[in-house]
Design goal:
CATH class of the largest domain: Mainly Alpha
Number of domains: 2
Number of strands: 6
Largest sheet: 4 strands, mixed
Number of helices: 19
Strand content: 5-15%
Structural class: alpha+beta
CATH architecture of the largest domain: Orthogonal Bundle
Radius of gyration: 22 Å
C-alpha cells in the first residue's frame, strides 16, 4: 500500500472485507442469540407480509408480475402464485412494508427485514435452501447493511434518502450472494453492482411508492447477485471509493468509512443493537408518543372530548421542522393555533387525508389514540383518517423538537395533555414497547402473527407455519414454509 496509513488501507478494503465476511460466515459461526433474533424477525416479517399482501400496492405489484409471466419458482406471498425470484422479491418486499408494521433498527435508521427476508425467501426457494441457510443469509445481510450504515453520514436521511431502500439493497445483495454460493470476487462484484441500483426518496412517504422501496431493494439484491454469478463486473471498491456508495449517499460530505469494518461480525448488530418490533401499524417515530398518550388516557380516565390541546416533544433529529407541500396552516376555525402544522423526520403529514398519510402523522396518531385507544390496522383506513372528529382533534396536536438529541436507538417522546378544565398531565417514554430494551415476548409476537396471517391463509396454515418458524433451524427446505404462505390467487392475477 506504499505510504498509505493503516486507516486509509482499511477504508480502501471495505468492499473486499464485506465480500470475505459473506463467504466465510456459516451457521456454526452464529451465536445462539443471533439465531433467536433471526427467527423472531422471520415470524414478525412473514406475518406483516401476509397482511400487507391484501393492500392495494401489493395487489398492483402482483398483477404486474402475473401479467409478465415467467418461470414459477418463488412464492408471491398471499397472492396464490409463483414467479421468477426477482419478481417474487419485488412483490413480497412491497407487501412487507405496505402496512408500516415491520421491524426497525437504529443501526441503519430504517427497516432491516422488508428488503432482506423477501430476497432470502425467493432465492432460498430457487436454490433449495434449508432453514439454517435462510437464517445464515438473513444474519449476514443484516450485518452488512447495518455496518455499512455506520459509515453513512448523518446527512443521508435528512436529505431525503430512505435508508431502508439504499442500505437494504446492499443487505439483500449480500444475502442473495450467500445463498447462490458466490465466491469472494463475485460477491465483491455483486456489492459493486448493488451500489448503482440503490435508491429511494422520502418524498414518497405516505404513498404506495414508500413500500415499493424495499420491494425494489429486494429485487435489486437478487439481480445484483444473479448478474455477478454470471461474470458481470463492477468497480472493486464501489462502496468506499471517492465516488462510491458512502460518499455518494452522504450529501453533506460527512461519510465515515472508517466506522464500517472494526466490528464487522463481532459483535453482530442483530444482537448488540437489536431489532425493534412494532406494536402499532404506523411509523415507529410515533410509538413512544403513542405509549405515552395511552398511558395518560388510562391513568387519568379522560376522553377525547375532555382534551383541549396536546403537545408532543421529540428529540432533536438534526433536521429542520417543515410543512409538507399542500399542508394547510391554522385558520382558527378548527382549534389550530397561529403556527402552521409541523412535521419532523419521517412524520411529514401533519394534516393527513389518507390512511397512508396518517401513518406518518404524529397529529393523527395522537388523535386516533384519544378517540379509539391502541391503534390497529383499521385505524389507518382512508375513512378513519377522514372522520370529522379525527380531523378536528388532530388540529389540536402540536409537535415540538427539543434541543436534546436522541441517543442511538432511543426515540423518546414526552406528551403533555391539557384538559378543558385547565389541568395538564404529562409523561415521557424513553423507548417504545417492542424496542430492543423492551422487547415483545414470543407469545406477543405469535399473537401479532396470527392476527396478520389468519385473514389471508386461514387458521390451519397459520398454525402449521408457526410451528415451522419455531423450528426454523431444523427445516430441511424453505419451500416447506413458503408453500403455507401462498394464499389464494385472485382473478386479477390469473
Amino acid at each position: 500500500m506504499g505510504c498509505l496509513s493503516r486507516e486509509q488501507e482499511v477504508v480502501m478494503e471495505i468492499t473486499q472485507a464485506l465480500a470475505e465476511y459473506v463467504v466465510r460466515t456459516g451457521f456454526a459461526d452464529l451465536p445462539a442469540e443471533a439465531v433467536t433474533q433471526a427467527k423472531r424477525a422471520v415470524l414478525d416479517t412473514l406475518g406483516v407480509t401476509l397482511a400487507g399482501s391484501l393492500e392495494p400496492c401489493a395487489r398492483i405489484a402482483g398483477e404486474v408480475i402475473a401479467a409478465e409471466g415467467g418461470q414459477p419458482v418463488a412464492t408471491v406471498i398471499g397472492q396464490g402464485f409463483k414467479a421468477p425470484p426477482r419478481a417474487a422479491a419485488l412483490a413480497n418486499g412491497t407487501a412487507a412494508h405496505a402496512l408500516d408494521y415491520d421491524d426497525v433498527t437504529s443501526s441503519m435508521r430504517g427497516h432491516p427485514s422488508p428488503p432482506l427476508l423477501p430476497a432470502v425467501l425467493a432465492v432460498g426457494e430457487e436454490t433449495g435452501a434449508s432453514g439454517r441457510d435462510l437464517i445464515t443469509a438473513y444474519v449476514i445481510g443484516f450485518e452488512v447493511q447495518c455496518k455499512v450504515g455506520r459509515g453513512l453520514g448523518q446527512s443521508h436521511y435528512p436529505h431525503g434518502w430512505h435508508a431502508t431502500a439504499t442500505l437494504g439493497t446492499l443487505g439483500a445483495t449480500a444475502a442473495a450472494a450467500k445463498l447462490y454460493g458466490l465466491d469472494v470476487e463475485r460477491t465483491r462484484m455483486a456489492l459493486g453492482i448493488a451500489t448503482s441500483l440503490a435508491c429511494g426518496s422520502r418524498q414518497n412517504f405516505g404513498t404506495m411508492t414508500k413500500p415499493l422501496h424495499p420491494g425494489v431493494a429486494a429485487q435489486s439484491g437478487v439481480l445484483a447477485a444473479q448478474l455477478a454469478a454470471r461474470g458481470f463486473t463492477a468497480d472493486r471498491a464501489a462502496i468506499e471509493a471517492p465516488l462510491g456508495f458512502l460518499r455518494l449517499f452522504s450529501p453533506a460530505q460527512d461519510a465515515q468509512p472508517e466506522k464500517v469494518l472494526p466490528d464487522l461480525g463481532n459483535p453482530l448488530d442483530i444482537v448488540a443493537v437489536g431489532i425493534g418490533v412494532k406494536k402499532y401499524p404506523c411509523c415507529y417515530g410515533t410509538h413512544s408518543a403513542l405509549d405515552a398518550i395511552l398511558e395518560l388516557r388510562e391513568r387519568y380516565g379522560f376522553t377525547a372530548d375532555d382534551v383541549d390541546w396536546v403537545t408532543v416533544t421529540v428529540p432533536n433529529s438534526g433536521g429542520q421542522p417543515f410543512v409538507k407541500a399542500g399542508a394547510a396552516g391554522g385558520d382558527g376555525s378548527t382549534g389550530d393555533r397561529e403556527a402552521p402544522p409541523v412535521g419532523l423526520g419521517p412524520l411529514i403529514h401533519p394534516r393527513p387525508t389518507t390512511g397512508l398519510e396518517g401513518k406518518f402523522s404524529m397529529q393523527y396518531c395522537m388523535a386516533a389514540a384519544l378517540l379509539d385507544g391502541s391503534p390497529v390496522l383499521d385505524t389507518f383506513s382512508d375513512q378513519a383518517v377522514r372522520r370529522t372528529e379525527a380531523q378536528a382533534l388532530l388540529r389540536r396536536v402540536e409537535l415540538v423538537q427539543a434541543a436534546e438529541p436522541a441517543e442511538p436507538g432511543r426515540g423518546w417522546a414526552e406528551v403533555a395533555v391539557t384538559l378543558k378544565n385547565g389541568t395538564t398531565v404529562r409523561t415521557r417514554v424513553d423507548q417504545p414497547r417492542g424496542g430492543p430494551d423492551r422487547p415483545l415476548t414470543w407469545d406477543e409476537l405469535v399473537a401479532k402473527y396470527r392476527d396478520c396471517a389468519v385473514r389471508v391463509i386461514g387458521s390451519e396454515a397459520t398454525e402449521e407455519s408457526l410451528r415451522l418458524i419455531g423450528e426454523l433451524e431444523h427445516l430441511s427446505t424453505v419451500s416447506d414454509l413458503t408453500r403455507l404462505t401462498a394464499g389464494r390467487r385472485t382473478a386479477a392475477t390469473v
